[in-house]
Design goal:
Length: about 375
């Protein structure tokens, strides 16, 4: 059977290996498996959220509120934007998919960083667009600008902090860059880890309101999957000028967010204490990874997120290391498919991290 030609050269996206598969493949008990591969919040989610969703469970016959008014109100007061500036997706992933279909086709070019979130390329391929990558591994906005002038892309993705490297852009540099981009080019600023960056360094802390008030061609993406600890709920959002949001809405399937997820995300926004505590603990634990790397003489990339990228030396191999860890029930992310001899480790709880250092020390 023949399928869509655009899919021929594509591979399936492999998310961090699920615990369930490690149980099957290696016969390890679920309680002995530690997953530090998908940048989830190791402290779970707010207790308020857990309480709130209990009431919903008793009443699931009705379709969700498709206006999403409660979550939109919560997001609009959090970010001081209007409801018409918000679109909610099944993860911010889905918002990326919408905007690819809204703006790009076979004749389009998409400009991305050399090493960045894999879904930009995957969705670009769905619509047959050409991918232009920078050569620099860190977001180099001068190079972005040079390629923008040369290639005239339809969409530019800035991922700050960037996944899987963890580095973040200075906000004033982002604004300087955006000042030079014409209104026909859509710029996506993916802030999946912005809560972490904002906590660590004010100069990296982007205010989406400022962004979308100033630029009609920019969309900001956020998610509940990372700092809010709701990866299993699949909720993300895009904030942009009304004209962009209106186009994205044409692509949105009805009821794309479940009742449970809408409630969880709305309540999660009200518990800032939970998020702040998780982030404070994250950076406290991150310090241990920095010390570990120093002791083992391996390089790290300074991280503004809840993960850290360990760049291995030539005599070490990231695929071998991650496979060995996997056999012991420790799931991390091998970055060899990104062309890096490195692993990305989500910063876990104190106990999880200790276990990582113990296991990794057998190989490094
Ligand atoms: C995790 C992540 C997302 C989106 O996650 P969702 O779970 O789909 O909301 C988007 N961008 C980056 C860079 C991420 O790391």
């Amino acid at each position: 059977m023949k399928f869509n030609k655009k899919l021929q050269s594509m591979r399936t996206y492999e998310a961090g290996k699920p615990i369930e598969l490690v149980v099957r493949e290696f016969g390890i008990e679920p309680k002995d498996i530690i997953k530090l591969a998908s940048n989830e919040n190791p402290y779970g989610c707010s207790l308020k959220v857990q309480e709130a969703v209990k009431d919903i469970v008793a009443n699931m016959a009705l379709y969700p509120d498709d206006s999403m008014i409660k979550l939109k109100d919560a997001l609009s007061s959090r970010f001081e934007v209007e409801n018409k500036n918000i679109i909610i997706g099944s993860g911010s992933d889905q918002v990326i998919e919408f905007l690819m279909h809204a703006k790009a086709d076979e004749n389009s070019k998409i400009l991305i960083n050399s090493v960045t979130f894999a879904m930009y390329e995957i969705y670009a391929r769905h619509v047959g667009s050409e991918i232009i990558r920078t050569s620099s591994q860190k977001h180099d906005l001068d190079e972005f600008y040079m390629l923008y002038k040369k290639e005239n892309p339809d969409i530019i993705f800035l991922c700050t902090p960037n996944n899987p490297t963890g580095d973040a852009l200075d906000v004033n540099k982002i604004f300087e860059f955006l000042d030079k981009i014409d209104g026909e080019t859509l710029v996506v600023v993916d802030g999946a880890y912005m809560e972490y960056a904002a906590f660590k360094d004010g100069s990296k802390s982007l205010n989406p309101k400022e962004l979308i008030q100033k630029y009609e061609n920019v969309i900001y993406l956020g998610t509940f999957s990372k700092a809010y600890g709701l990866g299993g709920m699949r909720v993300g959002y895009g904030l942009a000028d009304e004209k962009i949001i209106k186009e994205l809405y044409k692509l949105r399937p009805p009821f794309n967010i479940t009742t449970l997820s809408l409630e969880a995300a709305s309540v999660a926004l009200s518990d800032e204490e939970f998020v702040n505590n998780s982030i404070a603990l994250n950076f406290k634990e991150m310090k241990r990874y920095e010390d570990f790397a120093k002791k083992k003489k391996i390089d790290i990339i300074e991280s503004y997120t809840n993960f850290i990228t360990l760049c291995l030396n030539n005599n070490q191999n990231s695929t071998q290391l991650s496979n060995s860890l996997l056999q012991k029930g420790m799931i991390v992310r091998d970055l060899s498919s990104y062309g890096m001899n490195a692993i990305r480790v989500t910063v876990g709880t104190n106990e999880q991290n200790s276990r990582f250092f113990e296991l990794a020390s057998e190989f490094i």
